[in-house]
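By convention, each integer encodes one residue's backbone shape. The lines below illustrate.
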Amino acid sequence: MSGPTLQQHTTDDGPPVASRGRDTGRLLRGVLVRLGTALLVLFCAATVSFFLVRLSGDPVKLLLPPDATAQQEAVLRSSLGLDRPLFTQYTDFLQGLPRLDFGNSLFYNEPVRTVLADRLPATLQLAAAALVVTLIVAVPAGIFAAMRRGRASDRGVMTMVLLGQSTPPFWIGILLILVFAVGLHALPASGYGTFAHLVLPSITLAVYSVAVVARLLRSSLIDVLSSDHIRTARAKGFGPLKVVLTHGLRNASLPVVTVVGLEIGSLLGGAILTEQVFSWPGVGQLTIEAISHRDFPLVQATVLLFAATFVVVNLLVDLSYSFLDPRVRTSR
């Protein structure tokens, strides 16, 4: 009778130690690869934004009065560092990125980091409120539509979803202002500072995301509800709602988590038009102002901020797969 070999040694509460070590190594390599890819994407975004923004024209023309002389333009251009070779400006820009030093705003005459820090809380507040609205509305709507598949209530939900996906957000915002601000005088049409000011912009920003998440959740749940383990749960006498919440929702969550992660980035990027409609003092409105003033450093910083948001959220979503579905973890 032979004793156990080293390859058979296991811990009391998990798989073999060697197997767990290999899984950890694969996971670590996957994280490093994704971090490298994320840095490459941010580098490309920074490079593209640096060169494209300079195609918009000369900001000196906007900073000086129309009757300014050529000497005044030359002095201002030199003080702003715009007379240096383009490659020198580019290398200085890249060298400042690790320190989050984006230079000074040409229009506000303040460090770009300071200008962004003043506007970012308003955008984060708006995006967070829109995300809460999205989850509160989309998840129950998707579950309800999946459970009522093919019925009139399902078709009604899907019709509303289709309208939400096909309607421009700025038009929804204008309609909400006309109804609730102009017509009913129930909510303010613009401004910032109170919960009442947050209601209409957050709903406007959330409409498209609600439609996307609800539609995908319904489709994913319908696929899961036709699987064998769901039929087994029903045979054991579990009610329809308990089957969906206990057995179906987690298995249907992977594509939903992916879309929710993407929508977080979209909420920040989509806030540009919403902030314009409601005069919301966030990064979106700041971006429009920076473009109109040809404020090169500020435009570069806002573009890089939006790109970094998408990259970080996608990275976190990708890593969350390993915890939501063990099959993803073992396949890496």
